[in-house]
Amino acid sequence: MSTANHTGGFHHAHHFDSAEHQYESSKQGIWLFLVTEILMFGGLFVGYSIYHSLYPQVFHAGSKQLSVVLGALNTVVLLFSSFTMALGINYVQRGLRNKAIIALAVTIACAAIFMVVKFFEYTHKFHVGTVPGKYAYTEELSASGEKVTKVGALLAEANKLSVVEREHKLHLDETEYEHLTLLEKTKNWPLFFGFYFVMSGIHGLHVLAGAFLIFWVLLKVIKNQVGPEYFTPVEGVGLFWHVVDLIWIYLFPLLYLVG
Amino acid sequence: MAHEQHNYLNHQKGIWSWLTTLDHKRIGIMYFVAIMSFFFLGGVFALLVRAELFTPGKTLFSADVYNRMMTYHGAIMVFMVIVPGIPAIFGNFVLPIMIGAKDVAFPRLNLMSWYMLMIGAAITGSTLFLENVDTGWTFYTPYSSIKTGLGVIPMVLGVFIIGFSSILTGLNFIVTTHKLRAPGMTMNRIPLMVWALYSTAILQVLATPVLAITLLLLIAEKTLGVGIFDPQLGGDPVLFQHFFWFYSHPAVYIMILPAMGVISELVATYSRKVIFGYTAIAYSSLAIAGVSFLVWGHHMFVSGQSEFAGVLFSFITMLVGVPTAIKLFNWIATMYKGSIRLDAPMLFAIGFMFLFTIGGLTGVYLASTGMDIHFHDTYFVVAHFHYVMVGGTLMALMGALIYWFPKVTGKIYSDLTGRISWVFIFSGFNVTFFPQFILGNMGMPRRYYDYLPTFTELNQMSTFGSWLIGTGFLIGLFGVIYALLKGKEAGNNPFGGKTLEWTIPSPPPHENFEKTPVLTGGPYEYR
Fold first, then answer.
1. Residue A163 lies inside a defined structural domain of this protein
2. Could you please report the per-residue DSSP string of B410-431?
């Protein structure tokens, strides 16, 4: 029965009265699922606020180490992707198949850009040693018997070099050198990066999951399985994507700006 | 058989049709088989733990083995038996029928929940063969994060996945209750079992995500050493307890609310009376669900939290007693001047009320900060939560099993077998756990492998009781097998129930109802 550009072949499941009934039920289910996502991140936010009040200086020194430029870039990318996702849903609802395909593809591309930026942020942190908990420490002990952090080791090396050589050999510019020095003076600073990696890491996994889901509905659009009569999966995935975006909108100021 | 009746059991054939079924009734049966297997395993661990405590010092195993058995007993029973038990088995089977629906809102998600429970259980269970876990079912830091082995990671990962199963089931039930009620079935006409399952589902959806993040943080702590729970890195191990009980205290009500729903059904049916105070029972379920989120601090009275927090949590904890008592008094008022039939399910219902009352009242002891300092981490606590969780949930589970057995299978469960099973379980239960109140008051600490010689007699009594309980459940199992093989044909409504599931054939047809029912009155219109 289905023709080229609409989904006339769609039938609602036997236990629903109508397609409308099924759509409303699915939508309620998706919203409930999103509530559980918010609550799960809620646990992290509670942990964050407790430790922020216990160790304000850790969070101050730690957030200085994050690149506001890259974080802001990612925020813009995600906000734009939310826009293209909303466009995609709208196009599917209006049966504009080709436009919908472009909008969804752009959304996936934005997710990819976000992850690439994250990749550079993460690798830089592995390079300077601003990593969580026990991995922030080297095996050796200092003369006074205290544990040496990787940042401390890097700074010790940097102190032997001139400013130009630091830039050249260790890829440390002057600002970052100062920030790391401030960080190293703060007790328990790896705790901040514990939160940074766990929160942004779990969020990153959600970005990947979202991109995968958008790809899944993109295939449905291409195969004409969704259209003006039936667009529940597209809208559901869209709502998930907006929540992923929303969580980042909270994570960005909390991690990058509060310092 | 002259003519084979067409029902959900013979609608499709073969093991594959079961493993891929989207029928809520078949999924309910699959949960039954799975959860009963876990129950058997958890029960064996319980018997072994009790056997070890028959004498002070070493009886059968080393302390190390004892710690592991205790951990597996707790984890299996809590996460794989009591939490999913009634909602997943009986909720799946009767909830859609009770509200006049053909299925749950999301049948494929329902099947996925079952597979998630299986996968989670397999990962958790694999630690039995890879690296045993000895943390206790609560996985308290810093022991779980710093001291003990890496087996904690798969164990916790399995529980995380089981949590997902729980969330998805809850989500499914909420949407089903909201959207799939038959015409005329207003929210104030749904059976009390559905109200209980609905309140439970809200708890599952709102509390379980917090457990999920707590367990993820524990995994992160173990693999990355993030330091959130590690004092050496600036973290706080007690934070884990706050997070953990923010889920696990509401989870206590995830365990008990469905049981209360079962009891409401049983009391109405076997007293042949309109349930007394329908709205009060219905909304007290929601009240329990609400209050349960605000009481987690009573698990940490001795953790060094502020006195103010202690007083506050003490007060709110006692508040839970109010909606609970509302239910209990309404059940008793329903029984008053009713035509009570003491069939096996009703015996289990009365057993529930008896044991749950003892569990609830001793809960008031523990909610009082002064008393709690004396009783904290003693056998008093062990006795208290077994009275609530086991005496409550498992009595209701047995009652539900015998009550709905004819509907599920079309065969009658032998009432005599049910009564004998009840005698063993009920008396065995009291013999096992009542001495533990006394032991706790005398100062025997919980979780310990060894105890002082003065505690020997009471411990032996307790171990003897555990054998009685084990026998009782074996008799219950025998009843299931016997009824399946030789049970009498049940007919549509052997017990005179008034809710919708008794208006359709037993076993129900594939789509539950030939014609969508239209409701004109409440669920319990006896007289």
1. no
2. SBPPPHHHHHHHHHHHHHHHHH
